[in-house]
């Protein structure tokens, strides 16, 4: 049986001094959830966030353990001899295990667990996937080559690289592949289009590599020279950054522009600022080995290679650390995070088990309102925030801080209004928006099956470079407007104060300052919302509202805008109603002069405004936002079926697998209805309370309809009432808590 040189072995000596440093670290709030039995000597782990499946290769039992992330039940799939690495293509739901002693790769169908075997080079040690091109790259340690597998056909091509390739990583944005050649102290750069190679000299014994595709920077960890070679992906120029002793692994958080390096010889982790390349050193456990990062929560997790297993958490916000005990697990050597469920999986090599940790949540953030502003409009001229339109089946990222709306790079989440204008009025099955850098979640933000102009509000965490990504199944123009953002608490930030949902304005009522008559087309009207009966305090600086339009005389409505009274009307829209049906959309509206808001509609329309909370200076009872990766709470098409009237049982958010904590006092949902016919309205509210006299959305025309909803929480459940028969989908993107 072939073995790697001693320097490459996963095990390392534990020193008493470093163990004492680890033992003195504070205990984190996140805890061990469960321990799952794996095969013999698990050495590598990978996650498919799209299916919530976890794949662990077991070197000494020649198999793979497949873990269901929802139930923690397992299946076993046979591989080749001594599997040493594993990678997942979430787009095709295929899993690839590199078998070191049989010179092969086992290809696993993630749906059926059926396998195929592909011959590769001598001792495949590392593997990486380009999901965009569906190519798989296998580093063959002893044959000094990389095998390129076509994911569609399993046909292979061999590319010669330097000596003893030890690690491989893919930049799918540039279609370039980076191979750490440990024997030649170099990185081989493979052009994914033609397989040509370029060699770049780095430090001594490069053994790990990671890429920030958005900054186009590559980090090669040099074990023997105690540094990291940072490669500029455009020029291939190299800058060496000194780190700790025996650096062994690296991970990048593109959203925070930080790279994390584990220093196995010094019991530390080095944090590299991507912009300045300045470093910070934090104490980790003994001989830290593997590392992974949750982009949404800005937390890094690294394994401590000791007999009494622990994982060290590094908070990317303030570089503080905490130690997480793995109980009786021994020798944790591999780690992977599922960012969509905020769950961490640790392979315990000697213990033949997988530890499952509930990851630490995102840091609390608070709100800053802005005058509504247009971030992007693909109907306009070409550019980073203009056209062309989004082609069907494609995605595009928009770096919000780089727009003309003066949003700072410190923003951690955005309050947006997303509008689609389908090309030539063709159907749009769905559109999804999510933080750039995360895998595309299996959720939708809105639908336009009849090809109409439609809008929906969304609170979206900032991703890599402060960007958000948008995917559309069919060709459409996309418009993004912003009315505020969330950042770490500061002197001017605001907390959220929930209210029992209450009706503020209804122009269908008798004439009055908050009643009739209906809105006159092309005329601004101001509403003094503080004079309503909804008990809104005068210190409110922004309102969380649901705005509904009811057509007058069957007239279509091009758009309606809402903004702070006393300011000039901005070039934004809150909703559209081109088919003259009843349409609702959520909005966070900054308070204007005397707390009033201004509304403009381009055609006559009735207007209904409900409120569910407000933003004001931090005080007793105030809540902060905790961003999360978008996650599907319920889809009644597979759970419970269609309903009419009040749904029984309530939607159990806490038990959905999206893992909102018990401290949550409000959820941020995207609610979608698929009506069987006309649906008068849908109302969501906190279980345990009385049904309020408000609506969340309307689908009187029977079309698939979505709306954002901020819903209070008392017991982890949400009640739903439908005036009509409908299926219901609910996705969660964040929550409010003290």
Please describe the structure with a list of short key phrases separated by commas or semicolons.
elongated, eight-stranded antiparallel β-sheet, Methylamine Dehydrogenase, Chain H, 1 helix, mainly beta, 4 domains, Jelly Rolls, 738 residues
Which secondary structure elements does this structure contain, and how are they paired or packed?
Blueprint: H1 16-23, E1 32-37, E2 42-48, E3 53-58, E4 63-68, E5 74-78, E6 83-89, E7 94-99, E8 104-109, E9 115-119, E10 124-130, E11 135-140, E12 145-150, E13 156-160, E14 165-171, E15 176-181, E16 186-191, E17 197-201, E18 206-212, E19 217-222, E20 227-232, E21 238-242, E22 247-253, E23 258-263, E24 268-273, E25 279-283, E26 288-294, E27 299-304, E28 310-315, E29 321-325, E30 332-338, E31 343-348, E32 353-358, E33 366-377, E34 394-399, E35 413-422, E36 428-435, E37 446-448, E38 454-461, E39 467-472, E40 476-487, E41 495-506, E42 525-527, E43 542-551, E44 557-564, E45 575-577, E46 583-590, E47 597-601, E48 605-616, E49 624-635, E50 643-646, E51 651-652, E52 666-675, E53 679-686, E54 697-699, E55 705-712, E56 717-737
Antiparallel strand pairs: 1-32, 2-3, 3-4, 4-5, 6-7, 7-8, 8-9, 10-11, 11-12, 12-13, 14-15, 15-16, 16-17, 18-19, 19-20, 20-21, 22-23, 23-24, 24-25, 26-27, 27-28, 28-29, 30-31, 31-32, 33-40, 34-39, 35-38, 35-40, 36-37, 36-39, 41-48, 42-47, 43-46, 43-48, 44-45, 44-47, 49-56, 50-56, 51-56, 52-55, ...
């Amino acid at each position: 049986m072939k073995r790697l040189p001693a320097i490459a072995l996963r095990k390392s000596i534990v020193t008493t001094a470093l163990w004492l440093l680890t033992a003195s670290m504070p205990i984190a709030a996140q805890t061990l959830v469960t321990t799952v039995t794996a095969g013999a000597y698990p050495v590598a782990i990978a996650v498919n966030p799209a299916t919530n499946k976890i794949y662990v290769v077991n070197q000494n039992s020649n198999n793979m353990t497949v873990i269901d992330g929802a139930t923690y039940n397992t299946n076993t799939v046979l591989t080749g001899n001594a599997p040493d690495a594993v990678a997942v293509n979430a787009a095709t739901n295929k899993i690839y295990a590199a078998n070191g002693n049989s010179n092969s790769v086992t290809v696993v169908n993630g749906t059926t667990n059926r396998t195929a075997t592909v011959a590769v080079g001598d001792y495949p040690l590392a593997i990486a996937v380009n999901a965009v091109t569906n190519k798989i790259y296998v580093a063959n340690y002893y044959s000094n080559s990389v095998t390129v597998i076509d994911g569609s056909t399993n046909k292979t091509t061999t590319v010669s690289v330097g000596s003893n390739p030890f690690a491989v990583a893919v930049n799918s944005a540039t279609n370039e592949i980076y191979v750490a050649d440990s024997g030649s102290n170099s990185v081989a750069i493979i052009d994914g289009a033609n397989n040509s190679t370029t060699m770049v000299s780095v430090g001594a014994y490069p053994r790990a590599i990671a890429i920030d595709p958005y900054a186009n920077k590559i980090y090669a960890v040099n074990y023997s020279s105690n540094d990291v070679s940072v490669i500029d992906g455009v020029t291939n120029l190299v800058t060496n950054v000194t780190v700790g002793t025996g650096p062994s692994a690296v991970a990048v958080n593109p959203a925070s522009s930080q790279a994390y390096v584990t220093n196995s010889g010094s019991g530390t982790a080095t944090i590299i600022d991507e912009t300045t390349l300045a470093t910070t050193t934090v104490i980790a456990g003994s001989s830290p080995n593997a590392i992974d990062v949750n982009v949404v929560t800005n937390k890094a997790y690294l394994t401590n290679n000791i007999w009494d297993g622990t994982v060290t958490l590094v908070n990317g916000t303030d570089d503080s650390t905490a130690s997480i005990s793995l109980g009786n697990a021994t020798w944790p050597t591999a780690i992977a995070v599922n960012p969509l469920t905020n769950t961490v999986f640790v392979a315990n090599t000697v213990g033949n088990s997988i530890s499952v940790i509930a990851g630490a949540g995102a840091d609390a953030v608070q709100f800053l309102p802005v005058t509504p502003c247009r971030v992007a409009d693909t109907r306009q001229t070409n550019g980073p925030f203009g056209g062309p339109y989004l082609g069907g089946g494609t995605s595009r990222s928009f770096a919000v801080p780089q727009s003309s709306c003066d949003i700072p790079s410190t923003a951690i989440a955005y309050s947006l209004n997303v509008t689609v204008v389908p090309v030539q009025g063709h159907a749009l099955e769905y559109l999804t928006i999510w933080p750039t850098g995360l895998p595309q979640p299996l959720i939708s933000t809105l639908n336009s099956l009849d090809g109409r102009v439609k809008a929906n509000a969304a609170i979206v965490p900032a991703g890599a470079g402060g960007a958000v990504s948008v995917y559309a199944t069919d060709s459409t123009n996309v418009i993004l407007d912003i009315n505020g953002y969330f950042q770490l608490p500061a002197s001017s930030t605001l907390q959220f104060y929930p209210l029992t949902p209450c009706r503020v304005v209804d122009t269908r009522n008798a004439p009055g300052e908050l009643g009739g008559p209906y809105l006159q087309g092309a005329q601004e009207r101001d509403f003094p919302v503080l004079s309503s009966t909804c008990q809104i305090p005068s210190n409110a600086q922004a309102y969380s509202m649901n705005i509904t339009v009811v057509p007058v005389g069957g007239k279509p409505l091009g758009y309606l805008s809402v903004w702070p009274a006393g300011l000039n009307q901005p070039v934004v829209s809150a909703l559209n109603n081109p088919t003259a049906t009843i349409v609702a959309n959520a909005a966070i509206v900054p308070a204007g002069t005397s707390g009033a808001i201004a509304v403009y509609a381009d055609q006559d329309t009735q207007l209904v405004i409900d409120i569910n909370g407000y933003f004001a200076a931090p005080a007793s009872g105030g809540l902060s936002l905790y961003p999360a990766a978008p996650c599907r709470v319920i889809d009644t098409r597979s759970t419970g079926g269609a309903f009419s009237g009040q749904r029984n049982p309530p939607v159990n958010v806490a038990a959905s697998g999206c893992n909102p904590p018990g401290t949550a006092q409000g959820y941020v949902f995207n609610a979608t209805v698929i009506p069987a016919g006309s649906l008068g309205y849908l109302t969501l509210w906190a279980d345990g309370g009385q049904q309020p006299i408000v609506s969340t959305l309307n689908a009187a025309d029977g079309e698939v309809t979505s709306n954002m909803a901020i819903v209070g929480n008392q017991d982890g459940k949400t009640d739903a009432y439908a005036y009509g028969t409908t299926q219901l989908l609910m996705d969660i993107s964040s929550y409010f808590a003290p």
